[in-house]
Design goal:
Strand 1 (150-155) and strand 2 (158-164) form a beta hairpin. With 468 residues, the protein is mainly α. Helix 10 (233-259) runs antiparallel to helix 11 (287-310). Helices cover 61% and strands 4% of the residues. The longest helix is centred in the first third of the chain and has 37 residues, at 109-145. The chain starts with 14 loop residues before the first helix and ends in a 7-residue tail after the last helix.
Length: 468
């Protein structure tokens, strides 16, 4: 088909060049945003008497018909068109005639694609944020049920001190809460309308950019037309935030994979989120967790790709920037899929609480508290540290936990030990006496759970804007 921009050229574009240049195969994804942006633009043109009311009504009716037919499947977006903008405009002209040729008045494809990408990104931020909220609700439910489920806390993947499952889950709640806050911040920063910036230097038409921004739920128009069409900071920020989300999911997945192993047996993954082996009938593999962990690199790659693409681009718009779409679309879809699947896996996860507690006891996680016991009975800390080191060595030789030893065995290591040591080094005591906010003690955890409930309640009553 003839190109909408073909007047300057005396011969057809080489087919290979046309195919290489075209973006319809991927930018058709934001057909709705392109049509919504065009409808707002037309309303503004009529308000400014650049279009007549009749022309406005014809164009709006034509655009509404195209949107309806695309969503009904009766109008197919094909590679016959160079990009989604050409598809919409060409079909509009076919439907309503000369009035459709006025759609592009006061507008360039540069500010048009910048608008489409912002509208699409804004919508996907809201969708991703909603999925993260659901994940937080699942994590919080696990926390509420497990304020007294004892397990080992780790450093260097070595058992360190006793904590609760609620405390461990709470760490991930904080991570994903920060992820949502990052998305909120990106939404606020990107929420300025580039439409009306033209190719790079605005236009001589008396556009009302504030009105266009208002129609599309932006906080206002962008303030520099060159930056408006050259800016992809919000894409970079989003891909950075998505990479961080995937990093958090990957860490969580790694722990579930370890906990699901025969050596740990802390959890059992539901059959719906596991697969078997084609040769080993005993296997139950944590495939969803492994795939989430694996797909993290895919999202990282998108971030590195757009950073590399943008680093050498002079002002203003350059065709390189077309590369922002495929990788961003893929990263968004990947993250949304991973969050949804991970949430389902976590919600159906079975925790073996007895195994967790036994692991905490056998791992000498109360050794620090045993040293504190000696210190509180007058033993210098350095001496107490050495005494407990010998005590742990004895326990390993006897295959016993510290609180399984008799008082005589303890006194043989240090005569300072008395009967009250057993209460002092019990898992319950070790956890319960850690009462400062952020610690694993039940009282502290209940306060954190209350705060987190309030956070989710506030978020529910103040959702992000969505496109009209």
């Amino acid at each position: 088909m003839a190109q909408l921009w073909g007047g300057r050229f005396t011969k057809e574009t080489d087919q290979l060049v046309y195919n290489f240049n075209a973006s319809i195969s991927f930018d058709k994804k934001f057909y709705r945003q392109d049509i919504e942006g065009s409808m707002a633009h037309v309303k503004m043109l009529a308000k400014q008497n650049i279009l007549t009311e009749d022309e406005k009504n014809q164009i709006l009716a034509g655009l509404e018909g195209i949107l309806k037919d695309v969503e009904a499947g009766t109008l197919v977006i094909t590679d016959e068109y160079e990009d989604i903008h050409s598809f919409v405009e060409a079909n509009l002209i076919d439907r309503i005639g000369d009035a459709g040729k006025k759609l592009h008045t006061g507008r360039s494809r540069n500010d048009q694609v910048a608008l489409d990408m912002k509208l699409y990104t804004r919508h996907e931020i809201t969708e991703t944020n909603t999925l993260l909220k659901r994940l937080l609700e699942v994590i919080l439910a696990i926390m509420e049920d497990n304020t007294e489920t004892y397990m080992p806390g780790f450093t260097h993947l070595q058992k360190a001190q006793p904590i609760t499952l609620a405390h461990h889950m709470g760490a991930y709640f904080e991570m994903f809460k920060r992820d949502r806050q990052r998305l909120d911040d990106i939404y606020k920063r990107l929420n300025y309308c580039p439409l009306g910036s033209g190719a790079l230097a605005g236009t001589t038409y008396p556009l009302d950019r504030d009105y266009t921004a208002q129609l599309l739920d932006f906080d206002g128009p962008t303030l520099n037309s060159m930056d408006s069409v050259a800016d992809r900071d919000y894409v970079i920020e989003l891909l950075s935030a998505l990479s961080t989300i995937m990093m958090h999911l990957s860490r969580f997945s790694e722990e579930i994979i370890i906990w699901n192993s025969n050596e740990y047996r802390f959890v059992e993954i539901d059959d719906a989120y596991s697969t078997g082996s084609s040769i080993m009938p005993q296997k139950k593999n944590p495939d969803i967790a492994e795939l989430v962990r694996g797909k993290t690199g895919r999202v990282y790659g998108a971030l590195m790709s757009i950073l590399t693409t943008m680093k050498g681009i002079p002002l203003a718009y350059n065709k390189d920037m077309q590369e922002d779409k495929e990788l961003t679309f893929d990263a968004i879809d990947t993250v949304k899929g991973c969050v949804a699947l991970f949430t389902g896996m976590l919600e159906t996860l079975k925790f073996h609480k007895d195994v967790m507690q036994e692991s905490a006891m056998k791992g000498f996680t109360n050794a620090t508290d045993a040293a504190d016991y000696l210190v509180n009975h007058g033993v210098p800390f350095r001496d107490a540290h050495a005494i407990i080191g010998r005590l742990v060595l004895y326990c390993i030789e006897q295959d016993k936990a510290i609180d399984e030893l008799s008082l005589d065995e303890l006194k043989a290591i240090s005569p300072v030990f008395e009967q009250d040591v057993f209460e002092a080094v019990s898992l319950e005591t070790c956890v319960n006496k850690r009462m400062t906010i952020g610690a694993p003690g039940p009282k502290a955890m209940r306060e954190v759970i209350r705060i987190n409930k309030e956070y989710l309640k506030k978020e529910a009553s103040n959702p992000l804007k969505t496109t009209k």
